[in-house]
Design brief:
Elements: E1 5-6, E2 12-14, E3 23-28, E4 35-38, E5 50-55, E6 69-75, E7 83-84, H1 93-97, H2 100-104, E8 113-114, E9 121-124, E10 128-134, E11 147-150, E12 155-157
Length: 158
């Protein structure tokens, strides 16, 4: 069964990024006893990858700079640092030009897919998954358009 993960999920904690560094804006952790299996090959669109839908805005309500990078990061209890588990998305141009409805449209979905470095990512209830950005500006979650959602087609909850 697919599980949509977003900034409004019960398992989510919105965070403040540090400008100029790859830092989390969203922390996700499965409920006790559950595991998320994240697949790199979503069957929508033509290209492999994990669709992550989003709107990225600063405190003035302006979109974050186009050169903002986005990546999924992972941390297990014994890790010293977060590991980047997707190829960093080098710019958010497609997020700036496509509204959320268009991002989810089959015709455009490949533009916002993130490439997983491995075959599958297993996030257990003791692990943490992050959506992280590197930007010269801070993400402001209080802005109406600010949101991040990992497609339910990529996440299986077991």
């Amino acid at each position: 069964m697919g599980r949509q993960l977003s900034n409004i999920s019960d398992e989510a904690t919105q965070m403040q990024n540090t400008p100029g560094e790859m830092t989390p804006i969203l922390e996700l952790q499965p409920e006790d006893g559950l595991t998320w299996l994240i697949s790199p090959n979503v069957a929508r669109g033509n290209e492999p990858g994990i669709p992550i839908f989003g709107g990225f805005y600063d405190s003035n309500g302006d979109p974050l700079p186009q050169d903002t990078k986005v990546a999924l990061q992972f941390e297990a209890p014994n890790d010293d640092d977060r590991q980047t588990v997707t190829e960093p998305y080098r710019h958010i141009r497609d997020y700036l030009t496509l509204d959320l409805k268009d991002q989810q449209n089959e015709e455009y979905i490949d533009a916002i897919k993130h490439i997983l470095k491995g075959r599958q990512l297993v996030v257990e209830d003791i692990d943490t998954l992050y959506v992280s950005i590197q930007s010269s500006a801070q993400m402001d979650w209080s802005q109406v358009g600010s949101r991040v959602t990992i497609s339910e087609n990529a996440v299986q909850e077991v």
